[in-house]
Amino acid sequence: MPCLILRYGDITRLAIDAIVNAANPALMGGGGVDAMIHQAAGPELLEACLALPEISPGVRCPTGEARITPGFKLPARWVVHTVGPIWRGGHDGETGLLAASYRNAAALALQNGAASLAFPAISCGAYGFPYAAATRVALRTLATCLTEAMAPATLILCPYDSRGAELYHEAAQVEGVPLIEG
Ligand code: APR
What we know:
Distance between the termini: 14 Å
Order of helices and strands: EEHHEEHEHEHE
Strand order of the largest sheet: 3-4-2-5-6-1-7
Number of helices: 5
Bound molecules: adenosine-5-diphosphoribose
CATH superfamily: Leucine Aminopeptidase, subunit E, domain 1
Number of strands: 7
CATH class: Alpha Beta
Radius of gyration: 15 Å
CATH topology: Leucine Aminopeptidase, subunit E, domain 1
Structural class: alpha/beta
CATH architecture: 3-Layer(aba) Sandwich
Number of domains: 1
Strand content: 15-25%
């Protein structure tokens, strides 16, 4: 039974098929969850990212798209790198691009045989996307992906803290999306 699960904490500790990294277009690592995933995975992760082709100077993954690498020393088998939008006030297509990040990351994980996939709150840190609005985009998009069988059967939302978990629960009420703690 496909379902959306909420499990807050450090995404690098999840021993599941795949975890999503909130990356930047160069895929060269950075701060936030990107830094923690690279630290936990070890240096081979950066090597694998740099081996991915640049589609334009300094861009290996355009905003809204996704790329996959092994997880190396992570408990997760794969890392699905996606680049969320930088928040510029909400009139620059940010919502659509954030939805595309969730959708493309889920599709890529499924294409590679992942049965479980966890997401951090993409764009809600350095990229400044308002957290509450982002949780509604995430839940709406992933519920549709599950309905259309375009995602691994088990999707986990992994906010870093309990405040994020509360916002996901509030969003699940607003969107009418079943969300179970697990
Ligand atoms: N597990 C789960 N969530 C985490 C973790 C973790 N270990 N570490 C941080 N987070 C949360 C943050 O609290 C935030 O809510 O992930 C969310 C996304 O924040 P960022 O990591 O800053 O990502 P984003 O806002 O998408 O900005 C991406 O920042 O780190 C750089 O290289 C990255 O340039 C890119 C940009």
